[in-house]
């Protein structure tokens, strides 16, 4: 079995323990024996948030971590970032405790699927349609930093931290399926923000992919590469893909805020804080490339970090004169 096919099979099988356990719970509930037959099923019935955290911990943190040691790569968590929110959405919608407005649930479901398909497509496009071709460069950089301790430190750095991020940013999905309130104007505002985020992220990632593909072709021809991407959305923001991704999660949080649970913004805030750190790492990495450092410094001086804004031509002129 080729590596690509083997990784695809592993990726499809990995979440099955949680899915099968949850389907078993729903089957017992539909048969009316949740409370009467087993304390386990009653606990699952009474504590939906604790249950989803337990399933995440055992199936993602522990199982994915064990698999990563056999493969010497943490590639799978990167792929499942695009899938887990969809799984969480259906978990919250199908749990017996769920109560919600059907139209709001349908809207959030469609939006989440569109977001997931876009991000999954971008993942495979970036990886040249390979399963597990490589792990996230940030994890690769961490390996030498932790040395012989990486085998256990990776459990916290790669997996346990993902539980905080993913469960946190998906809390609005829980709120949407916990409150039955008719749609109002704020729901449409949330839709607009979510759609804007998805569209911006899609075009930003597409422009980045085209830029990198073009440079690869130039290298093959032995021609000089383009040092910096500063066209399209990248002319107005140094990280428009990150900006679009944040818009999506903040838009989702507006749904929860409108249902009286503004505290759910904590997930979007954690995500933005994480992306701020990732932005710093990405820019430090760019500045380490001697061939591109000077061009990127000018780009930093003239272009907004996240929020798209007009390029500062006055600063660019002063830098060139200096």
TrEMBL record:
Could you tell me which PROSITE patterns the record lists for this protein?
S5A_REDUCTASE
One Gene Ontology CC term in the entry: membrane
**Name of the protein this chain belongs to:** Steroid 5-alpha reductase C-terminal domain-containing protein
Q: State if Transport is listed as a keyword.
A: no
Where along the sequence do coiled-coil regions lie?
Answer: none
Q: Where are the transmembrane segments?
A: 7-29, 49-68, 75-93, 150-173, 185-204, 262-282
Q: Which UniProt keywords apply?
A: Membrane, Transmembrane, Transmembrane helix
* InterPro entries, A to Z: UstE-like
UniProt xrefs under PANTHER family:
3-OXO-5-ALPHA-STEROID 4-DEHYDROGENASE, 3-OXO-5-ALPHA-STEROID 4-DEHYDROGENASE (DUF1295)
Short name of one Pfam family for this protein?
Answer: DUF1295
Q: Does the keyword Lyase apply?
A: no
């Amino acid at each position: 079995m080729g590596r690509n096919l083997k990784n695809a099979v592993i990726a499809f099988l990995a979440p099955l323990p949680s899915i099968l356990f949850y389907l078993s719970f729903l089957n017992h509930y539909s048969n009316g024996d949740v409370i009467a037959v087993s304390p386990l099923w009653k606990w699952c019935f009474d504590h939906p948030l604790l249950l989803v955290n337990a399933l995440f911990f055992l199936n993602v943190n522990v199982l994915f971590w064990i698999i990563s040691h056999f493969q010497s790569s943490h590639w799978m968590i990167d792929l499942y970032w695009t899938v887990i929110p969809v799984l969480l959405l259906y978990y919250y919608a199908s749990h017996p405790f769920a109560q919600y407005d059907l139209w709001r649930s349908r809207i959030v479901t469609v939006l989440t699927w569109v977001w997931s398909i876009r991000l999954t497509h971008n993942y495979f496009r970036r990886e040249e349609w390979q399963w597990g071709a490589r792990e996230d460069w940030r994890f690769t950089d961490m390996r030498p930093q932790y040395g012989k301790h990486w085998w256990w430190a990776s459990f916290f750095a790669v997996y346990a931290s993902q539980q905080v991020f993913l469960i946190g940013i998906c809390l609005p999905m829980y709120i949407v399926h916990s409150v039955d309130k008719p749609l109002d104007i704020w729901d449409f505002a949330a839709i607009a923000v979510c759609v804007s985020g998805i569209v911006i992220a899609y075009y930003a990632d597409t422009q980045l992919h085209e830029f990198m593909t073009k440079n690869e072709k130039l290298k093959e021809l032995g021609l000089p590469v383009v040092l910096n991407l500063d066209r399209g959305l990248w002319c107005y923001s140094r990280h428009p893909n990150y900006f679009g991704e944040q818009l999506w999660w903040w838009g989702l949080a507006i749904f929860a805020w409108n249902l009286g649970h503004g505290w759910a913004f904590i997930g979007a805030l954690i995500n933005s804080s994480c992306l701020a750190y990732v932005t710093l790492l990405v820019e430090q990495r760019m500045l380490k490339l001697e061939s591109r450092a000077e061009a990127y410094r000018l780009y930093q001086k003239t272009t907004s970090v996240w929020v798209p804004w007009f390029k500062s031509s006055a600063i660019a002129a002063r830098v060139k004169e200096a």
